[in-house]
Write a structure and sequence with these properties.
Blueprint (H helix, E strand, L loop, with lengths): L3 E2 L10 H12 L4 E5 L6 H11 L5 E7 L5 E6 L7 H5 L7 E3 L2 H8 L19 E6 H4 L3 E4 L6 E6 H11 L4 E4 L8
Parallel strand pairs: 4-6, 6-9
Antiparallel strand pairs: 1-2, 2-8, 3-4, 3-5, 7-8
Length: about 180
């Protein structure tokens, strides 16, 4: 696995979803580093990639309310635990659960294992509210998938907040999730 700047020179065999991410980042003048790798679907599988990227790959959770009428993409540090009660009160939603994969595909055009903030470029009707744990915004860079789980990109959090999100017509709601309890 090798870390390279910018888009791949050879696009043969790459999905349209992935190419669309690189096209948008280029159009917005956002610099990034990229790495191709075997398919990863869990945070454990992303650990080695974190080290090579020298960035934390965010845990991205696709959530919904009980009625399945409100959808959320939560970005949080990969090592933080997630408990719905810690988030529900901050976003005024009584009960949260993981949304079905069909909604993820419908709104973000992403399959489970590849979910990332980049999928918001496909949510043209703003059906998904972005939630970012404050700790993520305090770093310099993040790692995420370019809508496929066979590549990862390292990108500036400043570029995400100031260039990417305005371009895809989304705003982030900053939330604060507690650290794991220490024994």
């Amino acid at each position: 696995m090798e870390l390279v700047k910018g888009r791949p020179t050879n696009l043969i065999g790459r999905s349209d979803k992935e190419i669309k991410v690189y096209d948008l980042l280029e159009e917005l003048g956002i610099e990034y580093e990229r790495m191709d790798h075997e398919e990863t679907n869990t945070m454990e599988e992303c650990h080695e990639i974190d080290l090579l990227l020298n960035a934390d790959i965010c845990k991205n959770l696709f959530l919904c309310n009980r009625q399945k009428t409100q959808f959320y993409l939560l970005m949080m540090p990969g090592n933080k635990p997630f408990k719905t009660k810690d988030l529900s009160s901050q976003i005024n939603s009584a009960r949260l659960s993981f949304a079905d994969a069909e909604y993820m595909e419908e709104y973000l055009h992403i399959k489970p294992g590849a979910v990332s903030i980049m999928g918001l470029m496909n949510d043209t009707d703003n059906q998904v509210q972005l939630l970012i744990d404050r700790q993520v915004t305090e770093g310099d860079t993040i790692g995420c998938h370019p809508c496929v789980s066979t590549a990862s990109i390292k990108i500036s959090i400043k570029d995400i907040l100031e260039k990417f999100l305005p371009a895809v017509h989304h705003e982030a709601m900053i939330v604060e999730l507690p650290e794991a309890n220490r024994l």
